[in-house]
Amino acid sequence: MGAQRLVQGQRAELLQALCYGGSAEGLESVIDLLLAWEVLLSEDHQSLRTPSQPLYSSARALLDLACIQGESTCASLLAALNQVLPETQRAGLRFGDCRVPPQGAGPVPITAAQALRRDRPLLVRKLRGGVAAALKALLESGSFTVYDCDEVQLLLYTPSQQARRLLDLVQSKGESTAEVLLQHIQQTENKPSSPVNEEIPTECLLYQKKLRSSLSAQSHFLNTYGGTGSLSLDDIYTEVLLEVAKGSSEAQQQPLGLQDILGLVGTVNEEADLVLVSGEAGSGKSTLLQRLHLLWARGAALQDFLFLFPFSCRRLNSEERELSLKDLLFLHCCWPDQDQGLLFQYILDHPHKVIFTFDGMDEFRLGFSDEQRHCSPTLPAPVSILLFNLLQGSLMKGVRKVATSRPEAITPSLRGYLHKEVLLKGFSAGGSTAL
Ligand SMILES: Nc1ncnc2c1ncn2[C@@H]1O[C@H](COP(=O)(O)OP(=O)(O)OP(=O)(O)O)[C@@H](O)[C@H]1O
Ligand SMILES: [Mg+2]
């Protein structure tokens, strides 16, 4: 069957696969490939994907465009989908015998702008962890204004979307800007990867110390419903049984260790920040989080994270005030003794160094509301709005969030924002464990 008929005949299924989990990443990766293969022109691209356009409309527009352009565009679209979609989404779809154009088949790029277009998928991957550094280089060379940088770093964009926006803007500015960016990427790659840390301000280190000692004190004894008991967590804690939830591409349900909660295993959506640990009543979810807090406080786990902010959904129920994100962090977790402003700015600028935990989402009585988008870290909002926007990533994008819940309490709207789900099956009856 021809490619065009395959696209038309599977329209509903292709739309669903392209918009899987409510994430734009699949669609945008397909568009990256089509631009690189010069199947799509940048004018087509601009009309397909504007920030205000709902995801499904963009996906429909792409399928329509392919069908209007005919057989060869449809074949490329199927080839791109075949390359980009995870296995679980590919199953059941028919791609015909469309093939990925052989690498290097197109003309060798002679200009920097052409190279940016041809290598777009690779450049998005390279840039997504280093957008800030690339913007700095572009700003210093005079190629970008502060306004351009703000446009790229919109809080709503995921790291990959920022990288794409950066590439689009560079391309619109012409050859010399494209050269600056390529040179920057080359220099970054040639630099020996040094573990030398960027200097952390003393105020941040002092706050980290305070947070660690407060968390260590809170998690030393087993927390029970009545409060903190007298059993030492070290004495009672036994190994937990964790599994990747169904639906991830890891077919074999291998058991996981505590450190895998934040590892790569089981990832269903790289762009989302929320890891959900779900388990039945009494399976040990709160105790597991408490263990993670204690290990972080002792410097024995999660050492990539400078700050860990723990939240209890049960405690948040009693918060009646409207709070800003800043208040939520400092009032509910640990009050900074000095220079709140600097500390908060550091947190905003370094989201990958921060982790939030939310225990017992099923206990959150205020209910999650996805009606109100709230993106400002400094404006107050009701706690339920803050919480939902944090979990789905409108606020503090890039901060890793670990939440626990009984399975039945996870709403479909929240499910769309999961980085992965880990099932907690219980804990072993006796014997302590190393972690
Ligand atoms: N890893 C563990 N090792 C030893 N005992 C544990 C462990 N995890 C939990 N427990 C015991 O089980 C009790 C219940 O665990 P926990 O409160 O963590 O469950 P939960 O999944 O959070 O339950 P709920 O859904 O009601 O919030 C704890 O008070 C503790 O006595
Ligand atoms: Mg609990």
From TrEMBL:
InterPro entries, per database record: CARD, DEATH-like_dom_sf, NACHT_NTPase, NLR, P-loop_NTPase
Positions of the NACHT domain: 273-409
Subcellular locations according to the entry: Cell membrane; Cytoplasm
Domain named CARD: residues: 1-83, 108-189
Listed GO CC annotations: cytoplasm; plasma membrane
Keyword field: Cell membrane, Cytoplasm, Immunity, Innate immunity, Leucine-rich repeat, Lipoprotein, Membrane, Palmitate, Repeat
Principal subcellular localisation of the protein: membrane
Name assigned to this protein: Nucleotide-binding oligomerization domain-containing protein 2
Organism in which the protein naturally occurs: Albula goreensis
